[in-house]
């Protein structure tokens, strides 16, 4: 068996192909992975992938490509470093990181960056291949690497990755260079990225594409040039392109003839008034319209012009072609000015050449010098491009630039007619001729782009004797040919006759150089036009060169030429580096020829233009030193001054590039071996006379040139020593010493009176450091260092702060430190003390900190580079500058920043420089340095100040704003240095400031620094990529753990001093433990036990620890800190680390374990909620999960922690969520929680959240107004009315009638909106959240949710599934088992439920408007229910009603809806079964009620049309005829049933009465229908009447009893006002008659009617065709009959998508056909639905009232105008009847008996006859019942009797007893046992609060009496003549607690809870 052998050289490789690793111990590999091999065996490697070193395995050798690598730490912990180029390594790792992020860009839909990054990655890969191949030249390799690094930096910046410090394109190791150098690299790259260096040189690239025109046919010449419209002159030469007859370039294969580069444009040329001008000349006939055979000669004729501003190119897309409009001249003579006219928009002088004529040109501005362009746009220059120069030299003249160009502009001419009747067609031909008269071939250049020619022909202007051309030509004549050459201009007339000849009529000429050697002067010249008609006369140029050529220079006697009118004007401009037009310069250069002029020439040198001097620099210098050598005594001073002038001239920015030319001259051409004596002598003479000089300007010029004067001195001495073998050395040294003595004396002087010399001293110090290098050529290092030390030491130290010498002094020190002299260790030891002394003085005074930082940076950079031991230098710097440096940093960082944004970068630079210096110095310090540093402190106070300073500075360094966001490398280096320093200083802290010398401030500073250090974002390794995390761990380790261990160690040393940090350090330490680092948590969590223990010892409890822990936990976790692991660890019993047990385990051992465990449990529960809250808040949109989580947290703070401030904060967070989700009603309820904590007092409140400092009254007023606004937006006006009244009372009490008026008007508007605006009734849904994957506040709980407007079950289910995308929808309504509860998944169970209203008195009143009732049906609801029909026993197939039972589930919530949330948790479930007989009674009751309501609405004309009544009548009659009621008779009236169920006798009788009642209502309804039915619906009405008679016969009804025929029932369900003021309506179609005074057996008390099934059938086609659908119409046309031919069961079935155990319901079922579902959805109103488990009916028979005994309780009337005696009501009878006499009510309405307690279903429970009001739960206080007005809303539940709540129109039979009234009833009302108490006697001082820790009431109606049941009268009908019900009470009666009425003794009175008033 072969053994695994450790690999020797095969250590590193790249995976070539993916390997699945399916073999035993196989390691899966992906292509491109880098692997490290550990062992090898028979073709297999064992190793690991570098990105996951913990997973090791085997893989085939053939899958790996081996690469060379360097091995560090060889052995078990060896590390492989590839030996490839560092740029390649960086590319590889960077591309891997980008790959993962690139895919995320696609996921995040950032398409633009995705595609750009993709292109850059491909580009980098291509470049990487080129580098790997290794075939690139050195220059090309450099360019490729630069391109690669630029792309890498761009990608890192776009992806927000770290900035990479580089040197020479390679990444630098921060450990290999000093921190100051690292900072400089980072700063350089950052500035390069942030503020690119402005480029002063620009170039314009022009590519001529084509000329598009419809009337071409001739060749064209196109000229481009740059034109300055401000100066009215061209700035550049012309670029010339020839086009063929089609408008395309004539030479398409030669790109240099189509493209050009206008070079050397300055930044000042990129202005709006600088244009690119294009002139187009056609080559052809004289006239554009002439025939072809007229003339064969072709002329150059004007065609068109185009212009474009250069400034437009700065904003335009340079990649797009420009189509320039072409204009033509209206008058040909103005052609020379056409571009000016276009620019100035003189429209009358030009016009557009044609709408389809345009010049297609590519224009692009390029920036940088020409060499940079050649590198960046290599293809451009390789392909070929012509260069078009500026006229004249560029802004910067480069040495070696050779130019000799003469530019001539042909301006204009004046010619005579020459005997002709019309003007001439003049053409000028230009020739350049040499001294021999020969034509210079190829030296007449029309423009760049085309080669030069022998001659040039101007364009011809038709019949113009005064032509203006303004054409520019260039004559690049060589210098050696220039002398004797001239230019000749020949003038010809171009005939337009058949021959088309060009006839010569004159010429002009001009010589190019004068006899004295000066060239033709620049400017405009008027030339003489000489007559000449024969070409032969021009052959001999010697004949005419003797003639005069300037008209201005003609002698006075030559009147012939002076009198001629013919002239020719040209403008010349010479741009030459060799020729001059200056005579003074020529005189100086020829000084030997005229010795007498030397003095004059030297004096005039300063007046010569600098460009002339630099052109002849070497010649001029040779002349000066030649004069000095020959006549030193006579001219030494003047030569010296001229030399100073030239040196200072070269320091000008325009000529600074000639400095190297002078350096080259000094090194290679200077030959003045004797000059040093004169130079030293003159320089010393100037220095010595500084004191006495009246004017210092010339001396300053001399001292400014000190550098080059010393260069000439040193070079001259070297030449002399070389020539003489070193003679006169002592003399030279003596002269130099004397010179420096004079300099030192001059520097030591101070300002005296009127002769300030500080500026002169400053000028010398600026140039002095440049002398060091020259002195080192002749003196030793120590000698030069001594010179410098003594010179710098002579500078006066006490100078004014604004003195210019101060800054220059530091500048001199900077140059000294940067010089070669300081770099040498031998000289550095001499200079360092002087420099440190000056630095210390400056930094202590906080002066010139920028320069100080620069000096210190240079000094510390050398410490890292120097190979010698820098220990002594470090010690000197530490001793002199460390403390000063710390103070300086504190001063800088605490200094208020200037408002001007331009000053901020400078301050930032200084701070960064000083920080880098401090870090570099600390890094250099070793144990010895720290020991010496600490020993220098003479007292504990000094040491204390030092520690405080350094800890404070470290805290500043850790700030995020200290370095740029992407400076991760710099931050890591900083942190590494900080933790190293802290470890050194912690020993000093323990030794000097513990026990009796304890100093809290130092220890607190230490702990604060440690906590901030650990929590830095740059150290949170969990947030980094795997590769970045690995690099950090390899280089630095996890510094957080190191600091955490140090904190723990220091804490353990504190002993009893720990109490000083409790509770102050609880928050910071908690923040540390929230860092997701297991080791750090294990170290830090035990500290909490220590804190609890010490706090317990001190005060007997640890309430402070608990309070601080909870407060800080919320803020920290809301910032995103902490996780589920931390919660588990905090509550864990698992040991943490080493010998330390877990926190809980340690607490269990203590005597205070109970309170400790309770604290741990509380904190754990808080963390659960905070984690849920944070997770929910991450989602973008507001959903129920966010709101529910906030509610859970809010309740926790209120009930369990009693943290009022946090409670109020989360109230406002919840409020903002509601506003964002447009839940305005819930937002109002939420803000009411804060409002309830405030009182109407003047107590001042502090500024809090967004509230200013104000009184409690003002804040409460503001809250009221905000709540009112949201109640209004949420259409919850009833609640707003109560607040309006409360606020109005306050205004009234303060006599603020203005606001009182506004509030009353608002209240009135709310009443109007209630009556006028339609409000939608929401749906309610029960939602169960099952499974462990739900958040804690939802897990295994069920809620009832208030749906949105128009939201049905399917939409709600989809919304919930969107909120919980991983949830599984349960398809049944049964309660889940434990497997579902404990599953690691999410299960949602959703079905619809119906509200059970409590406010029956409002809903039962006949005069109350439907708009008012609709509010109470769906608001303040505590209980909800749903029904599930099922068959018990054997199902009768013939009649399913016999066995059809209903399972009714009632859900009770913890709070009523609406409230502070759209959903609340279910607190209690109650399950009852309803028998078939009871079900039938409910169905018919509800249908009777619906019929009665519709008939009343029809009578009172509340219905716009009669269709709803028609459909309802049709549905009921049709169902009855088809067997609906007959089925009930068959099922329940059979003898067998009566015999088997004797207990149901009363119910059977009740059912019989209801059936007869329904028949009676139908008969009356048909009568009303007959009155209002339209004519076209008469056939349908007749059909209904016929079917009704069939129905009566099927029921066995031949004739109604007498009491029914009297029609005693009235219908008053219309307008409240109308119902109350009009005469009572009785059951009469005419609305008249009288009320029958007989008790009707049909007036059965039916206070509450509920529906759990419906009788429905398919409506007839006739009805559907005739009647339309309205909002109030029912689903009669869409309901399908049940399988048993009756529709009773159709309403009991559950939707199959929720409950699978019940028959399917047509309503809302996804299994319905789409057509049916759509139709049903359109026709159903929000509450019109069959009752089932999914769509249950809200009416509950359990609340049906039964006769009650007299009650001993009474209620206060809500009308304050009623006196106390009037409010006393007689005792109530045992039951209420509509037959009660009206006179007994005294016009006030009937008294209201108390409501019986809820005891469950009548089917399975027995009602208690006790008047006691049973509370809903022990936590809820019971309160006396009362009758609210329609706006009072004191109760918390509603019961609906609206048809939209009671099933379909087509099912059920109802009763009219609710509306029946008997006048003749003789029953007398007995008085009540107790009178109503007077409202003034009720106490309002203390509101009733809950006794236990339950959440506060969320309804404004629950604040006083939560969940108070409201009495429901067994039967009540308010007559129309009775007064309106009382208005709601005033706010103080609603919002203040009411006194309890007297109760029996055995009922306990609720104990009022003390009210806590908010301090916020």
Fold and architecture overview:
By secondary structure, the protein is α+β, with helices and mostly antiparallel strands. The protein is built from 64 helices and 40 strands. Strands 1, 2, 3, 4, 5 and 6 form a six-stranded antiparallel beta sheet that branches. A six-stranded antiparallel barrel has the order 34-35-40-39-38-37. It is extended. The relative contact order is 0.04. Residues 899-907, 1133-1140 and 1602-1957 have low confidence and may be disordered.
Instruction: State the total count of DSSP E strands.
Output: 40
Q: Termini, distance in Å?
A: 82 Å
How would you sum up the major sheet? 6 strands, antiparallel
Low-confidence stretches: 899-907, 1133-1140, 1602-1957
Average pLDDT, rounded to a whole number, is 76
Secondary structure topology:
Elements (H helix, E strand, L loop, with lengths): L4 E2 L5 E4 L18 E8 L2 E6 L2 E9 L3 E3 L2 E4 L6 E4 L3 H22 L3 H23 L4 H21 L7 E2 L2 E2 L7 H16 L6 E12 L6 E10 L4 E2 L4 E5 L15 E8 L7 E11 L14 E11 H6 L6 E4 L1 E3 L8 H7 L5 E3 L5 E10 L2 H7 L1 H6 L2 E3 L15 E11 L11 E8 L21 E3 L10 E8 L3 H4 L3 E9 L7 E10 L11 E6 L1 E2 L9 H5 L13 H5 L3 E10 L6 H7 L8 H7 L5 H6 L1 H14 L1 H19 L8 H10 L6 H14 L8 H8 L1 H19 L4 H20 L9 H10 L3 H5 L5 H13 L10 H15 L1 H4 L1 H20 L4 H17 L5 H24 L9 H21 L2 H10 L3 H19 L9 H25 L7 H15 L11 H10 L3 H16 L11 H8 L4 H7 L1 H14 L3 H16 L5 H7 L12 H6 L4 H25 L6 H18 L2 H17 L3 H13 L7 E2 L8 E2 H18 ...
Parallel strand pairs: 15-22, 36-37
Antiparallel strand pairs: 1-3, 2-3, 2-6, 3-4, 4-5, 7-8, 9-10, 11-15, 11-21, 12-13, 12-14, 12-16, 16-17, 18-21, 19-20, 23-26, 23-31, 24-25, 24-27, 27-28, 28-30, 29-31, 32-33, 34-35, 34-37, 35-40, 37-38, 38-39, 39-40
């Amino acid at each position: 068996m072969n053994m695994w052998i450790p690999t020797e050289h095969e250590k590193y490789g790249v995976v070539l192909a993916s390997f699945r690793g399916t073999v035993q111990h196989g390691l899966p590999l992906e292509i491109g992975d880098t692997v490290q091999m550990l062992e090898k065996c028979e073709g297999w490697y064992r190793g690991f992938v570098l990105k996951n070193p913990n997973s090791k395995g085997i893989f085939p050798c053939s899958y790996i490509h081996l690469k060379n690598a360097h091995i560090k730490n060889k052995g078990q912990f060896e590390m492989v470093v590839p030996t490839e180029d560092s740029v390649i390594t960086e590319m590889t790792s960077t591309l891997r990181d980008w790959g993962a992020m690139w895919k995320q860009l696609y996921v995040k839909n950032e398409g633009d960056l995705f595609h750009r990054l993709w292109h850059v990655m491909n580009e980098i890969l291509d470049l990487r291949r080129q580098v790997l191949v290794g075939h690139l030249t050195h220059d090309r390799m450099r360019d490729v690497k630069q391109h690669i690094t630029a792309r890498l930096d761009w990608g890192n910046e776009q992806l927000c990755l770290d900035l990479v410090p580089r040197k020479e394109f390679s990444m630098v190791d921060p450990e290999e260079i000093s921190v100051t150098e690292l900072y400089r690299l980072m700063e350089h790259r950052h500035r390069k990225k942030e503020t690119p260096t402005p480029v002063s040189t620009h170039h314009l690239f022009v590519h001529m594409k084509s000329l598009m025109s419809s009337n071409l046919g001739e060749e064209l010449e196109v000229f481009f040039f740059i034109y300055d419209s401000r100066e009215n002159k061209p700035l550049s030469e012309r670029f010339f392109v020839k086009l063929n007859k089609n408008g395309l370039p004539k030479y398409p294969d030669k790109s240099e003839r189509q493209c050009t580069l206008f070079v050397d444009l300055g930044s000042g040329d990129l202005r709006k008034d600088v244009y690119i001008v294009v002139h187009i000349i056609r080559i052809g006939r004289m006239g554009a319209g002439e025939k072809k055979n007229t003339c064969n000669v072709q002329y150059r004729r004007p065609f068109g012009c185009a212009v474009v501003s250069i400034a437009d190119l700065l904003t335009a897309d340079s990649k797009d072609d420009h189509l320039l409009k072409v204009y033509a001249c209206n008058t040909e003579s103005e052609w020379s000015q056409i571009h000016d006219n276009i620019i100035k928009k003189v429209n009358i002088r030009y016009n557009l050449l044609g709408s389809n004529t345009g010049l297609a040109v590519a224009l692009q501005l390029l920036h940088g010098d020409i060499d940079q362009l050649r590198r960046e746009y290599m293809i451009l220059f390789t392909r070929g491009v012509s260069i078009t120069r500026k006229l004249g030299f560029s802004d910067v003249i480069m040495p070696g630039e050779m130019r000799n160009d003469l530019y001539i502009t042909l301006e204009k001419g004046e010619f005579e007619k020459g005997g002709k009747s019309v003007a001439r067609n003049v053409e000028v031909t230009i020739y350049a001729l040499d001294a021999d008269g020969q034509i210079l071939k190829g030296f007449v250049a029309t423009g760049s782009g085309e080669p030069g020619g022998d001659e040039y022909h101007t364009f011809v202007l038709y019949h113009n004797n005064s032509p203006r051309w303004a054409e520019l030509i260039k004559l690049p004549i060589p210098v050696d040919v220039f002398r004797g050459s001239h230019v000749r201009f020949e003038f010809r007339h171009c005939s337009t006759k058949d021959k088309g000849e060009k006839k010569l009529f004159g010429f002009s000429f001009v010589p190019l150089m004068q006899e004295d050697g000066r060239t033709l002067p620049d400017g405009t010249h008027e030339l003489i036009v000489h007559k000449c008609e024969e070409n032969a006369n021009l052959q001999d140029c010697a004949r005419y060169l003797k003639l005069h050529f300037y008209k201005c220079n003609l002698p006075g006697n030559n009147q012939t030429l002076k009198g001629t009118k013919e002239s020719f004007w040209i403008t010349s401009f010479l741009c030459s580096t060799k020729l001059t037009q200056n005579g003074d310069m020529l005189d100086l250069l020829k000084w030997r020829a005229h010795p007498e002029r030397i003095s004059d020439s030297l004096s005039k040198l300063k007046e010569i233009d600098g460009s002339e001097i630099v052109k002849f620099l070497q010649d001029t210098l040779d002349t000066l030193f030649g004069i000095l050598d020959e006549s030193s005594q006579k001219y030494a001073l003047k030569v010296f001054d001229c030399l100073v002038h030239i040196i200072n001239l070269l320091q000008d920015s325009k000529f600074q590039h000639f400095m190297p030319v002078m350096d080259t001259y000094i090194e290679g051409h200077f030959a003045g071996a004797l000059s040093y004596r004169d130079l030293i002598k003159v320089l010393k003479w100037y220095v010595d006379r500084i004191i006495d000089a009246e004017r210092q300007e010339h001396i300053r010029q001399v001292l400014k040139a000190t550098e080059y004067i010393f260069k000439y001195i040193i070079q001259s001495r070297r030449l002399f020593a070389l020539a003489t073998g070193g003679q006169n050395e002592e003399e030279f040294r003596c002269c130099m010493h004397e010179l420096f003595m004079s300099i030192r004396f001059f520097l030591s002087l101070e300002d005296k009176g009127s002769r300030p010399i500080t500026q002169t001293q400053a000028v010398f110090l600026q140039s002095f450091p440049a002398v060091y290098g020259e002195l080192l050529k002749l003196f030793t290092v120590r000698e030069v260092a001594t010179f410098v030390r003594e010179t710098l030491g002579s500078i006066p130290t006490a100078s004014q702060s604004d003195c210019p010498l101060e800054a220059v002094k530091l500048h001199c020190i900077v140059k000294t430190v940067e010089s070669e002299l300081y770099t040498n260790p031998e000289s550095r030891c001499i200079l360092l003390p002087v420099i440190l002394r000056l630095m210390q003085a400056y930094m202590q005074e906080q002066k010139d900190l920028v320069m100080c930082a620069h000096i210190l940076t240079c000094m510390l950079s050398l410490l890292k580079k120097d190979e010698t031991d820098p220990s002594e230098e470090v010690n000197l710097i530490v001793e002199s500058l460390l403390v000063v440096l710390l103070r300086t940093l504190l001063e800088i960082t605490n200094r208020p920043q200037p408002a001007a944004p331009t000053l901020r970068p400078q301050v930032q630079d200084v701070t960064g420089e000083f920080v880098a210096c401090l870090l570099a110095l600390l890094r250099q310090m070793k144990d010895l340095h720290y020991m010496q540093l600490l020993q220098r402190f003479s007292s504990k106070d000094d040491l204390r100040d030092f520690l405080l300073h350094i800890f404070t500075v470290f805290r500043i360094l850790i700030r995020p704003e200290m370095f740029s966001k992407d400076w991760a490398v710099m931050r890591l280096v900083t942190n590494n240095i900080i933790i190293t320093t802290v470890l050194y200083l912690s020993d000093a802290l323990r030794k000097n400031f513990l026990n009796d010398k304890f100093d809290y401030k130092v220890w607190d500073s230490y702990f604060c620094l440690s906590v901030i250090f650990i929590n830095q974002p740059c150290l949170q390794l969990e947030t980094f990529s795997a590769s970045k995390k690995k690099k950090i761990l390899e280089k630095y380790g996890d510094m957080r753990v190191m600091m955490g261990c140090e904190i723990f160690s220091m804490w353990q040393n504190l002993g009893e001093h720990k109490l000083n940090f409790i509770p102050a350090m609880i928050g910071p330490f908690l923040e540390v433990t929230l860092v997701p680092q297991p080791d750090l948590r294990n170290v830090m969590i035990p500290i909490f036990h220590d804190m609890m223990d010490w706090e317990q010892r001190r005060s007997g409890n640890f309430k402070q620890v608990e309070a601080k822990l909870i407060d800080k936990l919320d803020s920290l976790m809301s910032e995103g800190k902490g996780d589920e692991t931390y919660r588990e660890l905090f509550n864990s019993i698992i040991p943490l680390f080493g010998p330390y047990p877990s926190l809980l385990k340690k607490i269990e051992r203590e005597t205070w374990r109970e309170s400790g465990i309770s604290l741990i449990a509380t904190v754990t529960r808080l963390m659960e909620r905070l984690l849920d809250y944070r997770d929910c808040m991450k989602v973008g949109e507001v959903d129920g999960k966010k709101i529910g989580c906030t509610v859970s947290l809010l309740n926790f703070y209120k009930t369990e922690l009693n943290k009022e401030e946090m409670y109020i904060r989360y109230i406002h967070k919840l409020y903002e969520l509601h506003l964002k989700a447009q839940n305005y009603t819930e937002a109002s309820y939420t803000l009411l929680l804060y409002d309830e904590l405030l009182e109407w007092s003047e107590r001042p409140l502090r500024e809090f959240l967004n509230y200013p400092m104000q009184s409690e009254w003002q804040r409460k007023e503001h809250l009221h107004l905000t709540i009112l606004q949201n109640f209004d937006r949420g259409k919850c006006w009833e609640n707003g009315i109560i607040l309006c009244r409360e606020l109005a009372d306050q205004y009234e009490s303060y006599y603020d009638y203005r606001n009182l008026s506004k509030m009353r008007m608002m209240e009135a508007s709310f009443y109007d909106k209630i009556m006028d605006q339609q409000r939608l009734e929401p749906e309610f849904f029960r939602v169960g959240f099952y499974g462990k994957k739900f958040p804690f506040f939802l897990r295994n709980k069920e809620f009832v949710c208030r749906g949105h407007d128009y939201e049905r079950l399917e939409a709600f289910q989809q919304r919930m599934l969107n909120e919980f995308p991983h949830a599984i929808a349960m398809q049944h309504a049964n309660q889940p088992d434990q497997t579902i509860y404990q599953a690691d998944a999410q299960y949602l169970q959703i079905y619809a439920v119906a509200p059970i209203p409590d406010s029956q008195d409002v809903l039962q009143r006949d005069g109350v408007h439907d708009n008012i009732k609709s509010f109470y049906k769906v608001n303040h609801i505590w209980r909800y229910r749903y029904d599930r029909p099922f068959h018990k026993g054997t199902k009768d197939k013939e009649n399913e009603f016999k066995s059809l039972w209903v399972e009714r589930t009632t859900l009770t919530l913890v709070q009523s809806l609406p409230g502070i949330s759209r959903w609340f948790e279910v607190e209690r479930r109650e399950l009852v079964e309803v028998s078939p007989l009871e079900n039938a009674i409910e169905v018919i009751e509800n249908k009777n009620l619906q019929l009665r309501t519709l008939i009343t609405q029809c009578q009172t004309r509340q219905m716009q049309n009669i269709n709803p009544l028609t459909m309802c009548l049709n549905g009921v009659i049709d169902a009855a005829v088809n067997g609906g009621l007959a089925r009930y008779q068959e099922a329940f009236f059979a003898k067998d049933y009566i015999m088997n169920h004797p207990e149901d006798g009363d119910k059977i009788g009740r059912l019989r009465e209801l059936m007869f009642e329904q028949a009676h209502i139908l008969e009356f309804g048909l009568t009303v229908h007959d009155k209002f039915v339209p004519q076209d619906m008469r056939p349908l009405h007749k059909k209904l009447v016929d079917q009704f008679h069939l129905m009566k016969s099927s029921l066995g009804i031949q004739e109604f009893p007498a009491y029914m025929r009297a029609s005693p029932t009235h219908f008053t369900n219309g307008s409240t006002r109308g119902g109350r003021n009009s005469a009572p309506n009785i059951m009469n179609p005419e609305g008249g008659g009288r009320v029958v005074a007989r008790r009707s057996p049909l007036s059965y008390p039916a206070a509450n009617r509920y529906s759990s099934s419906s009788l429905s059938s398919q409506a007839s086609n006739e009805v559907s065709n005739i009647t339309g659908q309205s909002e109030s119409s029912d689903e009669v046309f869409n309901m399908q009959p049940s399988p048993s031919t009756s529709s009773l069961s159709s309403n009991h079935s559950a939707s199959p998508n929720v409950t699978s155990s019940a028959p399917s319901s047509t309503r809302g079922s996804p299994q319905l056909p789409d057509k049916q579902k759509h139709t049903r959805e359109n026709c159903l109103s929000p509450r019109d639905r069959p009752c089932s488990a999914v769509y249950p009916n809200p009416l509950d028979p359990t609340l049906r009232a039964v006769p009650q005994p007299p009650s001993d309780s009474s209620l206060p009337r809500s009308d304050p105008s009623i006196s106390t005696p009037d409010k006393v009501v007689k005792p109530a009878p045992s039951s209420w009847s509509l037959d009660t006499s009206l006179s007994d009510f005294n016009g006030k309405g009937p008294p209201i008996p108390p409501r019986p307690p809820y005891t469950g279903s009548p089917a399975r429970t027995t009602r208690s006859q006790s008047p006691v009001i049973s509370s809903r739960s022990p936590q809820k206080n019971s309160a006396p019942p009362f009758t609210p007005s329609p706006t009072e809303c004191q109760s918390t539940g509603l019961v609906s009797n609206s048809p939209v709540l009671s099933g379909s129109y087509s099912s059920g039979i109802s009763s009219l007893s609710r509306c029946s009234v008997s006048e003749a009833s003789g029953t007398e009302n007995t008085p009540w046992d107790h009178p109503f108490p007077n409202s003034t006697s009720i106490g309002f001082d203390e509101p009733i609060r809950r006794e236990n820790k339950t959440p506060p009431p969320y309804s404004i109606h629950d604040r006083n009496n939560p969940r108070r049941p409201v009495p429901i009268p067994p039967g009540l009908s308010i007559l129309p003549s009775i007064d309106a019900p009382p208005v709601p009470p005033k706010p103080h009666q609603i919002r203040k607690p009411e006194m309890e009425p007297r109760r029996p003794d055995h009922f306990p009175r609720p104990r009022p809870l003390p009210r806590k008033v908010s301090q916020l």
